[in-house]
Amino acid sequence: MKSRVFLILTIVVSVIGIGFLWPHLQNLTVDNQTAETEDTESTDEPEQGSAQIELTDEKIKAVQFTFSQVKRQSMNQVRVVPGRLQYDDRKHVSIKAPTEGVLVDVQVKPGDAVKTGQVLAVLNSPEIGTARADLLQKAAEYELVRKQYDWKSLIQNNVQKLVDALLSQRTMESVEKEFTDAKLGNYRSQLLPAYSQYLLALTIDKKSAPLAKSGAISLQTKQMREADVQESRAALKALCEQSIYDVRLERDQMLAKLNDAEHRMTISQQHLESLIGSGIDLNSDDMKSAEKLSRLEIIAPFAGTIEERTFSQSERVNRSDSLFTLAQTDTLWVAADIRESDWGAVSLNGGQELKVKVNAFPDQTFTARLHYLGRKVSPTTNSVPLIAEIKNPGGILRPGMFAQVMIPGKEKANVIAVPAKAVLDDAAQEFVFIKDSDRLFRRVDIQSGLKTEDWIEVERGLDGGEQVVEDGAFTLKSELLLEREE
User: Fold this and answer.
1) What is d(CA 312, CA 329) in angstroms, rounded to the nearest whole number?
2) Would the pTM of this model clear 0.90, i.e. be above it?
3) Span 118-125, mean pLDDT?
Protein backbone atom coordinates (compact mmCIF):
# COMPACT_ATOMS: atom_id res chain seq x y z
CA MET A 1 0.00 0.00 0.00
CA LYS A 2 2.80 2.47 0.87
CA SER A 3 4.68 1.63 -2.36
CA ARG A 4 1.59 2.40 -4.47
CA VAL A 5 1.15 5.82 -2.83
CA PHE A 6 4.80 6.59 -3.42
CA LEU A 7 4.49 5.74 -7.14
CA ILE A 8 1.53 8.09 -7.57
CA LEU A 9 3.39 10.97 -5.86
CA THR A 10 6.37 10.42 -8.15
CA ILE A 11 4.23 10.72 -11.32
CA VAL A 12 2.56 13.90 -10.09
CA VAL A 13 5.91 15.55 -9.34
CA SER A 14 7.21 14.61 -12.81
CA VAL A 15 4.23 16.18 -14.62
CA ILE A 16 4.59 19.39 -12.61
CA GLY A 17 8.29 19.57 -13.47
CA ILE A 18 7.71 19.17 -17.17
CA GLY A 19 5.14 21.97 -17.10
CA PHE A 20 7.72 24.36 -15.62
CA LEU A 21 10.40 23.33 -18.12
CA TRP A 22 8.27 23.26 -21.37
CA PRO A 23 8.65 26.98 -22.35
CA HIS A 24 12.39 26.74 -21.93
CA LEU A 25 12.49 23.62 -24.14
CA GLN A 26 10.46 25.38 -26.89
CA ASN A 27 12.84 28.34 -26.95
CA LEU A 28 15.79 26.00 -27.13
CA THR A 29 14.28 24.15 -30.14
CA VAL A 30 13.56 27.37 -32.04
CA ASP A 31 17.09 28.62 -31.41
CA ASN A 32 18.54 25.35 -32.70
CA GLN A 33 16.38 25.47 -35.89
CA THR A 34 17.37 29.09 -36.52
CA ALA A 35 21.02 28.24 -36.13
CA GLU A 36 20.70 25.28 -38.49
CA THR A 37 18.90 27.46 -41.07
CA GLU A 38 21.60 30.12 -40.91
CA ASP A 39 24.26 27.46 -41.31
CA THR A 40 22.44 25.98 -44.28
CA GLU A 41 21.98 29.34 -45.99
CA SER A 42 25.56 30.19 -45.48
CA THR A 43 26.65 26.98 -47.23
CA ASP A 44 24.16 27.05 -50.20
CA GLU A 45 25.21 28.31 -53.68
CA PRO A 46 23.85 31.66 -54.95
CA GLU A 47 20.41 31.56 -56.67
CA GLN A 48 20.46 30.51 -60.32
CA GLY A 49 18.56 33.60 -61.43
CA SER A 50 21.42 35.89 -60.41
CA ALA A 51 24.42 33.71 -61.36
CA GLN A 52 27.28 35.56 -63.04
CA ILE A 53 30.05 34.33 -65.31
CA GLU A 54 33.30 36.10 -66.00
CA LEU A 55 35.26 34.97 -69.05
CA THR A 56 38.92 35.45 -69.79
CA ASP A 57 40.09 37.46 -72.76
CA GLU A 58 41.12 34.24 -74.50
CA LYS A 59 37.61 32.77 -74.22
CA ILE A 60 36.03 36.04 -75.33
CA LYS A 61 38.11 35.91 -78.50
CA ALA A 62 37.41 32.23 -79.07
CA VAL A 63 33.62 32.63 -78.94
CA GLN A 64 31.88 34.71 -81.60
CA PHE A 65 29.31 36.51 -79.46
CA THR A 66 26.38 38.42 -80.91
CA PHE A 67 24.01 40.55 -78.86
CA SER A 68 20.52 41.94 -79.21
CA GLN A 69 18.92 44.76 -77.28
CA VAL A 70 15.69 43.85 -75.54
CA LYS A 71 12.84 46.00 -76.85
CA ARG A 72 9.11 46.11 -77.18
CA GLN A 73 7.49 45.13 -80.45
CA SER A 74 4.41 43.50 -81.98
CA MET A 75 4.17 39.73 -82.26
CA ASN A 76 1.85 37.33 -84.02
CA GLN A 77 0.91 34.13 -82.32
CA VAL A 78 1.70 31.22 -84.63
CA ARG A 79 -0.34 28.03 -84.62
CA VAL A 80 1.34 24.97 -86.10
CA VAL A 81 -1.11 22.50 -87.62
CA PRO A 82 -0.32 19.19 -89.31
CA GLY A 83 -0.79 18.93 -93.05
CA ARG A 84 -0.06 16.75 -96.03
CA LEU A 85 1.17 17.50 -99.53
CA GLN A 86 -1.13 16.58 -102.37
CA TYR A 87 -1.52 17.13 -106.10
CA ASP A 88 -2.69 20.49 -107.38
CA ASP A 89 -6.22 19.65 -108.52
CA ARG A 90 -5.92 22.13 -111.37
CA LYS A 91 -2.95 20.18 -112.77
CA HIS A 92 -3.95 16.63 -111.91
CA VAL A 93 -6.34 14.65 -114.13
CA SER A 94 -7.43 11.10 -114.59
CA ILE A 95 -7.57 10.35 -118.32
CA LYS A 96 -10.51 8.00 -118.80
CA ALA A 97 -11.79 5.87 -121.66
CA PRO A 98 -14.61 7.74 -123.47
CA THR A 99 -16.24 4.46 -124.50
CA GLU A 100 -15.61 0.76 -124.46
CA GLY A 101 -13.07 -0.67 -126.84
CA VAL A 102 -9.64 -2.27 -127.15
CA LEU A 103 -6.30 -0.57 -126.59
CA VAL A 104 -4.41 -1.34 -129.78
CA ASP A 105 -1.37 0.71 -128.75
CA VAL A 106 0.01 2.10 -125.45
CA GLN A 107 2.95 4.44 -125.90
CA VAL A 108 3.85 5.67 -122.38
CA LYS A 109 4.65 4.27 -118.94
CA PRO A 110 4.62 5.69 -115.39
CA GLY A 111 7.28 8.33 -114.89
CA ASP A 112 7.38 9.46 -118.53
CA ALA A 113 7.30 13.20 -119.15
CA VAL A 114 4.84 14.06 -121.92
CA LYS A 115 4.02 17.18 -123.92
CA THR A 116 0.68 18.78 -124.64
CA GLY A 117 -1.10 16.85 -127.39
CA GLN A 118 1.25 13.86 -127.25
CA VAL A 119 -0.39 10.52 -128.09
CA LEU A 120 -0.58 8.29 -125.03
CA ALA A 121 -2.56 5.36 -126.46
CA VAL A 122 -4.79 4.33 -129.37
CA LEU A 123 -8.29 2.97 -128.71
CA ASN A 124 -10.34 0.99 -131.24
CA SER A 125 -14.07 1.51 -130.62
CA PRO A 126 -17.02 0.66 -132.92
CA GLU A 127 -19.15 3.29 -131.16
CA ILE A 128 -16.69 6.00 -132.17
CA GLY A 129 -16.75 4.76 -135.75
CA THR A 130 -20.55 4.90 -135.82
CA ALA A 131 -20.53 8.40 -134.34
CA ARG A 132 -18.01 9.63 -136.91
CA ALA A 133 -19.95 8.13 -139.81
CA ASP A 134 -23.16 9.73 -138.56
CA LEU A 135 -21.45 13.11 -138.30
CA LEU A 136 -20.13 12.80 -141.84
CA GLN A 137 -23.63 12.04 -143.11
CA LYS A 138 -25.19 14.94 -141.21
CA ALA A 139 -22.45 17.26 -142.46
CA ALA A 140 -23.12 16.20 -146.07
CA GLU A 141 -26.86 16.76 -145.63
CA TYR A 142 -26.22 20.17 -144.17
CA GLU A 143 -23.93 21.11 -147.03
CA LEU A 144 -26.57 20.04 -149.59
CA VAL A 145 -29.33 22.06 -147.92
CA ARG A 146 -27.01 25.03 -147.59
CA LYS A 147 -26.41 25.04 -151.33
CA GLN A 148 -30.15 24.92 -151.95
CA TYR A 149 -30.68 27.79 -149.56
CA ASP A 150 -27.95 29.83 -151.27
CA TRP A 151 -29.72 29.19 -154.61
CA LYS A 152 -33.09 30.30 -153.29
CA SER A 153 -31.54 33.39 -151.70
CA LEU A 154 -29.87 34.33 -154.99
CA ILE A 155 -33.13 33.94 -156.95
CA GLN A 156 -35.06 35.94 -154.35
CA ASN A 157 -32.56 38.76 -154.59
CA ASN A 158 -32.60 38.81 -158.40
CA VAL A 159 -36.40 38.59 -158.63
CA GLN A 160 -36.69 41.57 -156.31
CA LYS A 161 -34.37 43.56 -158.57
CA LEU A 162 -36.31 42.48 -161.68
CA VAL A 163 -39.64 43.50 -160.17
CA ASP A 164 -38.22 46.90 -159.26
CA ALA A 165 -37.02 47.33 -162.85
CA LEU A 166 -40.38 46.27 -164.32
CA LEU A 167 -42.43 48.55 -162.11
CA SER A 168 -40.23 51.49 -163.11
CA GLN A 169 -41.34 50.94 -166.78
CA ARG A 170 -37.88 50.59 -168.24
CA THR A 171 -37.51 49.52 -171.85
CA MET A 172 -37.65 45.84 -172.62
CA GLU A 173 -34.25 46.04 -174.26
CA SER A 174 -32.54 47.44 -171.15
CA VAL A 175 -34.28 44.91 -168.86
CA GLU A 176 -33.24 41.94 -170.99
CA LYS A 177 -29.69 43.26 -171.22
CA GLU A 178 -29.35 43.64 -167.44
CA PHE A 179 -30.91 40.31 -166.49
CA THR A 180 -29.61 38.11 -169.28
CA ASP A 181 -27.16 36.23 -166.99
CA ALA A 182 -29.08 36.71 -163.72
CA LYS A 183 -30.40 33.62 -161.97
CA LEU A 184 -34.18 33.95 -161.92
CA GLY A 185 -35.44 30.36 -162.11
CA ASN A 186 -38.98 29.95 -163.42
CA TYR A 187 -39.77 33.55 -162.67
CA ARG A 188 -38.03 34.73 -165.85
CA SER A 189 -40.63 32.97 -168.04
CA GLN A 190 -43.46 34.42 -165.97
CA LEU A 191 -42.48 38.04 -165.48
CA LEU A 192 -40.84 39.00 -168.77
CA PRO A 193 -43.79 37.93 -171.04
CA ALA A 194 -46.25 39.73 -168.76
CA TYR A 195 -44.12 42.85 -168.90
CA SER A 196 -43.80 42.56 -172.69
CA GLN A 197 -47.58 42.31 -173.02
CA TYR A 198 -48.00 45.39 -170.84
CA LEU A 199 -45.53 47.37 -172.96
CA LEU A 200 -47.34 46.29 -176.14
CA ALA A 201 -50.71 47.39 -174.81
CA LEU A 202 -49.20 50.70 -173.71
CA THR A 203 -47.64 51.28 -177.14
CA ILE A 204 -50.89 50.54 -179.00
CA ASP A 205 -52.77 52.88 -176.72
CA LYS A 206 -50.34 55.69 -177.37
CA LYS A 207 -50.63 55.25 -181.16
CA SER A 208 -54.43 55.18 -180.95
CA ALA A 209 -54.68 58.64 -179.40
CA PRO A 210 -54.04 60.70 -182.66
CA LEU A 211 -56.14 58.30 -184.68
CA ALA A 212 -59.05 58.79 -182.33
CA LYS A 213 -58.74 62.56 -182.67
CA SER A 214 -58.75 62.38 -186.48
CA GLY A 215 -61.71 60.04 -186.48
CA ALA A 216 -59.76 57.16 -188.04
CA ILE A 217 -60.86 54.88 -185.24
CA SER A 218 -63.94 54.95 -183.13
CA LEU A 219 -64.09 56.16 -179.58
CA GLN A 220 -65.12 52.69 -178.50
CA THR A 221 -61.94 51.20 -179.96
CA LYS A 222 -59.89 53.80 -178.12
CA GLN A 223 -61.56 52.93 -174.86
CA MET A 224 -60.99 49.19 -175.41
CA ARG A 225 -57.31 49.79 -175.97
CA GLU A 226 -57.09 51.85 -172.76
CA ALA A 227 -58.80 49.00 -170.94
CA ASP A 228 -56.19 46.59 -172.32
CA VAL A 229 -53.43 48.79 -170.83
CA GLN A 230 -55.07 48.86 -167.42
CA GLU A 231 -55.73 45.15 -167.49
CA SER A 232 -52.17 44.26 -168.51
CA ARG A 233 -50.77 46.67 -165.90
CA ALA A 234 -52.90 45.11 -163.15
CA ALA A 235 -51.94 41.60 -164.25
CA LEU A 236 -48.25 42.53 -164.25
CA LYS A 237 -48.48 44.09 -160.80
CA ALA A 238 -50.34 41.09 -159.40
CA LEU A 239 -47.79 38.74 -160.92
CA CYS A 240 -44.92 40.77 -159.42
CA GLU A 241 -46.48 40.72 -155.97
CA GLN A 242 -47.14 36.98 -156.17
CA SER A 243 -43.61 36.34 -157.41
CA ILE A 244 -42.09 38.30 -154.51
CA TYR A 245 -44.21 36.36 -152.05
CA ASP A 246 -43.45 32.97 -153.59
CA VAL A 247 -39.71 33.49 -153.84
CA ARG A 248 -39.47 34.68 -150.23
CA LEU A 249 -41.57 31.75 -149.06
CA GLU A 250 -39.30 29.31 -150.89
CA ARG A 251 -36.24 30.93 -149.36
CA ASP A 252 -37.73 30.85 -145.84
CA GLN A 253 -38.71 27.19 -146.22
CA MET A 254 -35.19 26.35 -147.30
CA LEU A 255 -33.82 28.36 -144.36
CA ALA A 256 -35.91 26.23 -142.00
CA LYS A 257 -34.50 23.10 -143.61
CA LEU A 258 -31.01 24.53 -143.31
CA ASN A 259 -31.47 25.25 -139.60
CA ASP A 260 -32.81 21.76 -139.04
CA ALA A 261 -29.87 20.23 -140.87
CA GLU A 262 -27.48 22.36 -138.85
CA HIS A 263 -29.09 21.29 -135.57
CA ARG A 264 -28.87 17.64 -136.53
CA MET A 265 -25.23 18.06 -137.50
CA THR A 266 -24.51 19.88 -134.20
CA ILE A 267 -26.15 17.10 -132.18
CA SER A 268 -24.09 14.52 -134.02
CA GLN A 269 -20.93 16.57 -133.48
CA GLN A 270 -21.64 17.00 -129.78
CA HIS A 271 -22.21 13.27 -129.43
CA LEU A 272 -18.85 12.60 -131.03
CA GLU A 273 -17.22 15.26 -128.86
CA SER A 274 -18.61 13.55 -125.77
CA LEU A 275 -16.71 10.47 -126.87
CA ILE A 276 -13.43 11.87 -128.13
CA GLY A 277 -13.37 15.43 -126.79
CA SER A 278 -13.36 18.74 -128.62
CA GLY A 279 -11.32 19.71 -131.65
CA ILE A 280 -13.14 17.67 -134.35
CA ASP A 281 -11.83 18.29 -137.86
CA LEU A 282 -14.07 16.93 -140.63
CA ASN A 283 -11.13 17.07 -143.04
CA SER A 284 -8.76 15.06 -140.84
CA ASP A 285 -7.42 11.66 -141.83
CA ASP A 286 -9.43 9.99 -139.07
CA MET A 287 -12.65 11.31 -140.63
CA LYS A 288 -11.72 10.71 -144.26
CA SER A 289 -10.17 7.26 -143.94
CA ALA A 290 -12.64 4.41 -143.46
CA GLU A 291 -9.91 2.36 -141.74
CA LYS A 292 -9.43 5.02 -139.05
CA LEU A 293 -13.06 5.84 -138.34
CA SER A 294 -13.16 3.54 -135.28
CA ARG A 295 -9.75 4.51 -133.94
CA LEU A 296 -9.20 7.19 -131.31
CA GLU A 297 -5.89 8.66 -130.19
CA ILE A 298 -5.79 9.32 -126.43
CA ILE A 299 -3.71 12.51 -126.07
CA ALA A 300 -2.26 14.45 -123.14
CA PRO A 301 -4.37 17.55 -122.35
CA PHE A 302 -1.31 19.33 -120.92
CA ALA A 303 2.39 18.77 -120.35
CA GLY A 304 3.23 16.75 -117.27
CA THR A 305 4.29 13.37 -115.93
CA ILE A 306 2.48 10.06 -116.19
CA GLU A 307 1.85 9.20 -112.54
CA GLU A 308 -0.08 5.99 -113.16
CA ARG A 309 -0.98 3.62 -116.00
CA THR A 310 -3.85 1.20 -115.42
CA PHE A 311 -4.12 -0.86 -118.63
CA SER A 312 -1.71 -2.37 -121.11
CA GLN A 313 -1.84 -2.93 -124.84
CA SER A 314 -4.57 -5.28 -126.21
CA GLU A 315 -6.66 -4.97 -123.05
CA ARG A 316 -10.38 -4.26 -123.31
CA VAL A 317 -11.61 -1.22 -121.44
CA ASN A 318 -15.06 0.01 -120.50
CA ARG A 319 -16.51 3.47 -120.55
CA SER A 320 -15.03 5.72 -117.79
CA ASP A 321 -12.17 3.34 -116.97
CA SER A 322 -9.13 5.34 -115.86
CA LEU A 323 -6.33 4.76 -118.36
CA PHE A 324 -3.69 7.19 -117.09
CA THR A 325 -3.12 9.70 -114.31
CA LEU A 326 -1.37 12.84 -115.56
CA ALA A 327 -0.04 15.55 -113.27
CA GLN A 328 2.19 18.59 -113.13
CA THR A 329 4.18 18.76 -109.90
CA ASP A 330 5.89 22.12 -110.33
CA THR A 331 3.27 23.30 -107.85
CA LEU A 332 1.62 21.21 -105.12
CA TRP A 333 -1.09 21.79 -102.56
CA VAL A 334 -0.58 21.45 -98.83
CA ALA A 335 -3.83 20.54 -97.10
CA ALA A 336 -4.40 21.19 -93.41
CA ASP A 337 -7.28 21.59 -90.95
CA ILE A 338 -7.79 24.48 -88.52
CA ARG A 339 -9.66 23.39 -85.44
CA GLU A 340 -12.77 25.24 -84.46
CA SER A 341 -11.24 26.09 -81.09
CA ASP A 342 -8.29 27.84 -82.80
CA TRP A 343 -10.39 29.79 -85.28
CA GLY A 344 -10.70 32.89 -83.12
CA ALA A 345 -6.92 33.14 -82.64
CA VAL A 346 -5.81 32.91 -86.28
CA SER A 347 -5.70 35.65 -88.89
CA LEU A 348 -5.87 34.60 -92.55
CA ASN A 349 -6.49 36.53 -95.78
CA GLY A 350 -6.79 35.43 -99.38
CA GLY A 351 -3.40 34.99 -101.05
CA GLN A 352 -1.53 35.25 -97.74
CA GLU A 353 1.92 33.66 -97.51
CA LEU A 354 2.37 30.82 -95.01
CA LYS A 355 5.49 29.06 -93.76
CA VAL A 356 5.58 25.29 -94.21
CA LYS A 357 7.99 22.69 -92.90
CA VAL A 358 8.12 19.25 -94.47
CA ASN A 359 9.11 16.28 -92.34
CA ALA A 360 11.37 14.93 -95.07
CA PHE A 361 13.41 18.17 -95.07
CA PRO A 362 13.55 19.32 -91.44
CA ASP A 363 16.22 21.98 -92.09
CA GLN A 364 14.25 23.79 -94.81
CA THR A 365 11.30 26.14 -94.60
CA PHE A 366 9.05 26.48 -97.63
CA THR A 367 6.71 29.31 -98.55
CA ALA A 368 3.13 28.58 -99.54
CA ARG A 369 0.34 30.91 -100.66
CA LEU A 370 -3.17 30.52 -99.30
CA HIS A 371 -5.40 29.24 -102.11
CA TYR A 372 -8.60 28.13 -100.42
CA LEU A 373 -10.08 28.47 -96.96
CA GLY A 374 -13.25 26.56 -96.22
CA ARG A 375 -16.28 28.12 -94.61
CA LYS A 376 -17.99 25.01 -93.26
CA VAL A 377 -16.83 23.28 -90.08
CA SER A 378 -16.57 19.52 -90.55
CA PRO A 379 -18.91 17.68 -88.17
CA THR A 380 -16.44 14.79 -87.86
CA THR A 381 -13.21 16.72 -87.19
CA ASN A 382 -14.59 20.05 -85.91
CA SER A 383 -12.17 21.81 -88.22
CA VAL A 384 -12.08 24.06 -91.29
CA PRO A 385 -10.13 22.88 -94.37
CA LEU A 386 -7.21 24.94 -95.64
CA ILE A 387 -5.43 24.59 -98.99
CA ALA A 388 -2.21 26.46 -99.79
CA GLU A 389 -0.18 26.39 -102.99
CA ILE A 390 3.50 25.57 -102.63
CA LYS A 391 6.12 25.92 -105.36
CA ASN A 392 8.08 22.79 -106.28
CA PRO A 393 10.35 23.75 -109.21
CA GLY A 394 13.05 21.22 -108.36
CA GLY A 395 10.59 18.39 -107.82
CA ILE A 396 11.96 17.51 -104.38
CA LEU A 397 8.53 17.61 -102.78
CA ARG A 398 6.19 14.72 -103.45
CA PRO A 399 2.48 14.25 -102.90
CA GLY A 400 1.72 12.40 -99.68
CA MET A 401 4.54 13.89 -97.60
CA PHE A 402 3.69 15.09 -94.10
CA ALA A 403 4.13 18.78 -93.30
CA GLN A 404 3.55 21.39 -90.59
CA VAL A 405 1.79 24.58 -91.59
CA MET A 406 2.46 27.67 -89.49
CA ILE A 407 -0.74 29.68 -89.25
CA PRO A 408 -0.27 33.33 -88.20
CA GLY A 409 -2.41 34.47 -85.31
CA LYS A 410 -3.82 37.80 -84.35
CA GLU A 411 -1.26 40.48 -83.54
CA LYS A 412 -0.24 41.20 -79.93
CA ALA A 413 1.21 44.69 -79.64
CA ASN A 414 3.86 46.25 -77.35
CA VAL A 415 5.39 43.13 -75.81
CA ILE A 416 8.95 42.55 -74.65
CA ALA A 417 10.55 40.06 -77.04
CA VAL A 418 13.97 38.46 -77.41
CA PRO A 419 15.43 36.38 -80.25
CA ALA A 420 14.43 32.73 -79.98
CA LYS A 421 18.02 31.47 -80.04
CA ALA A 422 18.85 33.62 -77.02
CA VAL A 423 16.49 31.62 -74.77
CA LEU A 424 17.89 28.51 -73.03
CA ASP A 425 16.38 26.18 -70.47
CA ASP A 426 17.64 24.36 -67.40
CA ALA A 427 15.37 21.91 -65.59
CA ALA A 428 12.26 23.37 -67.27
CA GLN A 429 13.34 26.90 -66.32
CA GLU A 430 13.90 29.25 -69.25
CA PHE A 431 16.60 31.91 -68.97
CA VAL A 432 18.79 34.28 -70.93
CA PHE A 433 22.26 35.72 -70.46
CA ILE A 434 22.63 39.47 -70.03
CA LYS A 435 25.84 41.27 -70.89
CA ASP A 436 26.93 43.34 -67.89
CA SER A 437 30.38 44.25 -69.25
CA ASP A 438 32.82 43.09 -71.89
CA ARG A 439 33.77 40.03 -69.80
CA LEU A 440 30.93 39.71 -67.31
CA PHE A 441 27.63 37.98 -68.12
CA ARG A 442 24.64 37.31 -65.90
CA ARG A 443 21.96 34.61 -66.09
CA VAL A 444 18.38 35.92 -65.78
CA ASP A 445 15.42 33.56 -65.45
CA ILE A 446 12.37 34.51 -67.52
CA GLN A 447 8.79 33.46 -68.04
CA SER A 448 7.94 33.22 -71.75
CA GLY A 449 4.67 33.91 -73.51
CA LEU A 450 4.00 33.87 -77.25
CA LYS A 451 6.54 32.05 -79.37
CA THR A 452 7.30 32.35 -83.06
CA GLU A 453 10.05 30.85 -85.13
CA ASP A 454 12.31 33.87 -84.54
CA TRP A 455 11.01 35.62 -81.41
CA ILE A 456 9.84 34.77 -77.88
CA GLU A 457 7.74 37.03 -75.69
CA VAL A 458 9.09 37.65 -72.17
CA GLU A 459 6.27 38.11 -69.68
CA ARG A 460 8.50 38.36 -66.60
CA GLY A 461 12.23 38.74 -65.99
CA LEU A 462 13.25 41.58 -68.31
CA ASP A 463 12.34 45.26 -68.38
CA GLY A 464 13.70 46.24 -71.79
CA GLY A 465 16.94 47.82 -72.85
CA GLU A 466 19.16 44.91 -71.70
CA GLN A 467 21.73 43.34 -73.99
CA VAL A 468 20.95 39.60 -74.36
CA VAL A 469 23.40 37.12 -75.77
CA GLU A 470 22.33 35.40 -79.02
CA ASP A 471 25.26 33.52 -80.55
CA GLY A 472 27.42 32.17 -77.74
CA ALA A 473 24.62 31.70 -75.20
CA PHE A 474 25.09 27.93 -75.17
CA THR A 475 28.80 28.38 -74.45
CA LEU A 476 27.92 30.50 -71.41
CA LYS A 477 25.53 27.81 -70.21
CA SER A 478 28.32 25.23 -70.44
CA GLU A 479 30.65 27.50 -68.45
CA LEU A 480 27.97 27.94 -65.81
CA LEU A 481 27.52 24.17 -65.44
CA LEU A 482 31.29 23.69 -65.11
CA GLU A 483 31.46 26.25 -62.30
CA ARG A 484 28.72 24.42 -60.39
CA GLU A 485 30.61 21.13 -60.60
CA GLU A 486 33.73 22.75 -59.21
Assistant:
1) 25
2) no
3) 93
